[in-house]
Design brief:
The longest helix is centred in the first third of the chain and has 7 residues. The relative contact order is 0.16. A hairpin with a 2-residue loop joins strand 18 and strand 19. Helix content is about 0%, strand content about 50%.
Length: about 375
């Protein structure tokens, strides 16, 4: 973009993270993905059979439909776990200590506020936080805690089942997951959050395993556009959260990460529509975390996307594009988080804003994304 530095677009890759990845690791990661058969787009019969046109939109990635363990008994990635799901089917049976990352992030958008809750265990530390943005005034409340060795953190092996709980530094978060929904309770100085996130019948979420190699991999669940209700209590008073105009988004993560990692993430929600997009960290693995949701139904997008934004002015419009995605994201607020602890550090620019554009379903129909609200971010970590 003029006047700034654009992030590289599709066709140009960032250099591999400086974590000692051996040559050929990307090739090995691709080989870990089970073959999905010949691409339908190569079938010349499609041009003569409109009734089969919708098949051309299907992803090349393998859909998993039965429960599976993430890891083999020795802690390596189980090749059978590589793929994507419409509901949580993976058990994150991580082994070993030092590189494992476990987290639950819930983002909630209401007409008046944006709320963020993070509970995590990074093995050597737990990093927890409660964040609230007043959309009218731009006022932020952020209470963060770092707990050595993640003491007291409870992180269940399955998304959607069990209770995640963390305590420390004045922050307490409890995430109680049930078949019908999730309860979110958080307390920090100056803020209390008490929310119910309902799981509608037939609602689908995106689960994906990203394989960098047998010893480095990530399982993520992105659950976008969930109805949420409850209360937000601040020093200024109590605010009611209504299902009619509020949405919740889950980022559930379990895996073993390289030391250095960069990612993009965007999520937008609205009535009957939601979009989930990612980039950088999945490049070259044969898998993506991209999906469109229409009336709760997931349409998997397998192509890598081109992200363009100005790193000198994060509030300028972002553009995200691919064969099935044409998105412009216009921020109204930037949240900046920086941590520097010697060899460990992180910098995140999370912008909240509005989506415009369109994305394509599996049957080739373009869905209007105008008016969706959510965020787009860049995160850089040494961890």
């Amino acid at each position: 973009m003029a006047g700034g530095t654009d992030v590289p677009l599709q066709g140009r890759r960032e250099p591999p993270p400086a974590h000692g990845r051996r040559p050929g690791a990307r090739r090995a990661a691709r080989q870990a993905v089970p073959a999905a058969g010949k691409a339908v787009a190569d079938d010349p019969g499609l041009a003569h059979d409109p009734g089969r046109y919708h098949l051309a939109m299907l992803t090349h990635e393998r859909e998993i439909t039965v429960p599976v363990d993430l890891c083999l008994p020795d802690g390596r990635l189980d090749p059978r776990a590589v793929g994507w799901t419409r509901r949580p089917l993976h058990r994150a049976n991580l082994r070993g200590w030092g590189r494992a990352k476990r987290w639950e992030y819930w983002g909630i958008v209401t007409p008046s506020h944006v709320i963020g809750l993070v509970a995590s265990s990074l093995d050597y530390a737990g990093v927890h936080g409660v964040y609230v943005l007043d959309r009218a005034t731009g006022t932020e409340l952020a209470e963060d805690a770092v707990v050595p060795l993640a003491r007291g953190a409870t992180m269940p092996e399955r998304s959607g089942a069990g209770t995640a709980s963390v305590r420390g530094g004045g922050v307490s978060i409890d995430i109680d997951q049930r078949p019908t929904g999730t309860s979110l309770r958080a307390v920090a100085p100056g803020v209390e959050v008490d929310l119910e996130v309902r799981l509608p019948a037939g609602h689908e979420s995106l689960g994906v395993v990203i394989p960098w190699g047998p010893h480095r991999f990530q399982y993520t669940v992105k659950d976008v556009g969930r109805p949420v209700r409850g209360r937000l209590r601040l020093a200024s008073g109590e605010h009611t959260v209504n299902e009619e105009d509020s949405f919740a988004v889950l980022d559930h993560g379990r895996g073993k990460w390289p030391y250095s990692a960069t990612w993009n993430w965007a999520a937008g929600s609205g009535r009957g529509r939601a979009i989930q997009l990612g980039g950088k960290w999945t490049d070259g693995t044969g898998m993506t975390e991209n999906a469109l949701f229409v009336e709760g139904r997931l349409h998997k997008i397998g192509e890598e996307l081109a992200w363009s934004y100005d790193r000198t002015d994060w509030l300028r419009p972002w553009r995200i594009a691919g064969p099935r995605v044409e998105v412009e994201f216009t921020p109204f607020h930037e949240k900046v988080t920086r941590t520097e602890l010697g060899v460990v550090g992180a910098e995140t620019h999370q912008c909240f804003g509005h989506f415009a554009g369109r994305a394509r379903t599996d049957d080739g129909a373009w869905i209007d994304l105008d008016g969706l609200v959510g965020w787009a971010e860049e995160a850089r970590n040494r961890w």
